Amino acid sequence: PVADVDIVLSTIEAALGDLISRSKVSRGSILGVGIGAPGPVDAAQRRNLLSINLGWRDVPFADHVERALGVPAVVDHNVRAMALAEARYGLGRDVGSLAFVYVRTGVGAGLVLGGQPYRGGTHGATEIGHLRVDPDGRQCACGSAGCLETVASETALAERVRTATSAEPTGTLATRLSAEPAPLDALVGSARAGDTSALEIIETAAGHLATGMANLVNLINPELIVVGGFASDAGDLLLDPLRSALRSRALPLLRDVQRVELTTFGSKGGVVGAAAVAL
């Protein structure tokens, strides 16, 4: 596992306890605690059932927080929570349907349809990251192959950065990486400086994301798609080729009406989303 779940639970408990102490509010006045977890949750919104990238199964987040803090708690899929935040307080306040696509360790999606978070089907799972976009692609952590996550997640992007710098050890990207060891920071910085290798990596990822998002557009036709995570970090470097590629992949009737925007909340989307779930 990337993160030991017991350490994560104790960290959450300590952080919330510290926040409550510093805010000087009584616990009895707190309406609730919202928790955004990566992966499907149970129908009662108490447990994270499965987080493929973290190796978690059946983690009782709500029970733990309630026992530790004496405050009501509720759990939801982290990206569905971000979608709810945009629908309630952000770009989606005036639209009836919204999809949120989040690029980090994986590629997640959340839907708000008819003004309500979509939790239909088995555990309300909307796993856009595990749509197959490359039939001959590499093995994915989910057990399939060629999933969107294998070509468009931050992990995949960082690997492409390392491959490109090995091929061009004296190039702009390699030089920036040596001074700025975070691969994605080096990638974005190099792309902003006009480095062709960096721009190609981002544009290729945008094309793969557009392939996955076209499935959402053609099947569900959300009025608005909001993107966050690395997409928010990269800004127009990714957004412009993403919009262009999505337009070519969407049904002709939908091409001119589809909106794709960066998240309102930047890196705070998960926090605002968790609060929206609690409320």
Helix content: 40-55%
Structural class by SSE content = alpha/beta
What is the C-alpha radius of gyration, as a whole number of Å? 19 Å
DSSP strand count: 9
Describe the main β-sheet briefly.
Answer: 5 strands, mixed
Oligomer: single chain
Task: Walk across the major sheet and give the strand order.
Answer: 7-6-5-8-9
Amino-to-carboxy terminus distance: 31 Å
Uncertain runs are none
> What gross morphology would you assign?
globular
Q: Can you write the helix and strand succession as a string? A: HEEEHEHEEEHHHHHEHHEH
Give the amount of beta strand, in percent: 15-25%
- Average pLDDT for all residues: 92
Helices, by number, come to 11
Pick out its properties.
single chain; 279 residues; alpha/beta; two-stranded parallel ribbon; 11 helices; 9 strands; 16% strand
Write the layout of secondary structure elements.
Blueprint: H1 5-23, E1 33-37, E2 48-51, E3 56-59, H2 61-69, E4 73-77, H3 78-89, E5 97-103, E6 107-113, E7 116-117, H4 149-152, H5 154-167, H6 172-179, H7 183-192, H8 196-220, E8 224-229, H9 230-234, H10 236-249, E9 259-262, H11 269-278
Helix pairs in contact: 1-2, 3-11, 5-6, 5-8, 6-7, 7-8, 8-10
Structural overview:
The chain has 279 residues and is of the alpha/beta class. The strands form 3 sheets. The chain has a 5-stranded mixed beta sheet. The protein is built from 11 helices and 9 strands.
Please outline what is shown here.
With 279 residues, this protein is an alpha/beta fold. It is built from 11 helices and 9 strands. Strand 5 and strand 6 (107-113) form a beta hairpin.
